[in-house]
Amino acid sequence: MTVIRGEGAAASADTASVYFNSGINDRSVSSLLAALNDIALKYPATKNVNLYLNSPGGSMEAGYVAYDFIRHYPLHINTIDAAATDSSATMIYCAAEDRYAAPLASFLLHPAAAAIAVNGYMKPDQAKQAFEDVERENLKFREIYKGCLKLTPEELTTLLSSESNRRRLGYDAAKDIGLITRAPDRLPRGTDRLPISSAMAEAGEGRLTPGQTRSAVYKRSFFRDTFGVCIAPPATGNPVPHSSHLSRPCSLTQGRLSSCRARGVAAANPGIHA
User: Fold this and answer.
1) What CATH number does residue 98 fall under?
2) Does residue 20 lie within any of the structural domains?
């Protein structure tokens, strides 16, 4: 986990941003919570934390841990669907009262799923256990969605009863059912936003080492309302949503996520996923 050092005006920045660009798993969520905790401890003047999400989902347990953490977080958090917030990632999105989305962003709502390690056969006790596991995890979805979606109990039951009832929502559909609660132009942007492209230009010309580039980006980006850390998947494009990914710094321009470079991926772990 990369930590920003509070220097100069950084300690007085009123808005910070965290970019979560990963599957939901123990490691990525641990990195996310460490970043949020670091902001709360080191930047007391922060009034708003903008949490940008782009995630295919993954572990239900890890997603619920993040949801519960954010619900009790001491600072005000805005969640933003930056591209796609799917499955268990919607629990994290729903943890905030103020929820935003990019115009072309999407959401995926569907039931939880159980991973079963069998050799081509499933015995009655295994089927029963898998069903009970899924029902227990769907209870998390059900309780969270009650306060996040404008769906009737019958509609919610239908949604979580079968994969064939999944919903892929665009901006307007998500807004209609209460998933999105705020217009993009209402998102707090901070009081001091200027380009940080000069640090990027210097890095491109070879005048800064990677370590110096990271420090320059962090220093300038936090002045301009951006917490320069992202949590992202590997460049190999491993589609397994519950793989354990490493967190690493991003290149940031005008407060937007520009690029992330992968550094590795650990072995996937089985469990309940969505």
Assistant:
1) 3.90.226.10
2) yes
- Domains of the chain: total: 1
Question: Cβ(211)–Cβ(219) under 8 Å?
Answer: no
Per the structure, the complete domain to which residue 232 belongs is given by 8-191+225-273
Q: What is the rounded distance in angstroms from the CA atom of residue 25 to the CA atom of residue 17?
A: 21
Cα→Cα distances 170→39, 85, 105, 114, 181, Å: 31, 11, 6, 27, 14
Can you say whether residue 182 is alpha, beta or left, with left for phi > 0 and alpha for psi between -120 and 50 degrees? beta
Helix (H) or strand (E) holding 80: strand 76-86
Query: What pTM does this model have?
Result: 0.71
Token output for 142: 């059900």
Q: Which pLDDT tens digit goes with each residue over 140-155?
A: 999 999 999 999 999 9
Q: Which of 46, 5, 6, 53 minimizes the C-alpha distance to 32?
A: 53
CB-CB contact of 99 with 52 (8 Å): no
174 located within any domain: yes
Partners of 167 in beta bridges: 109
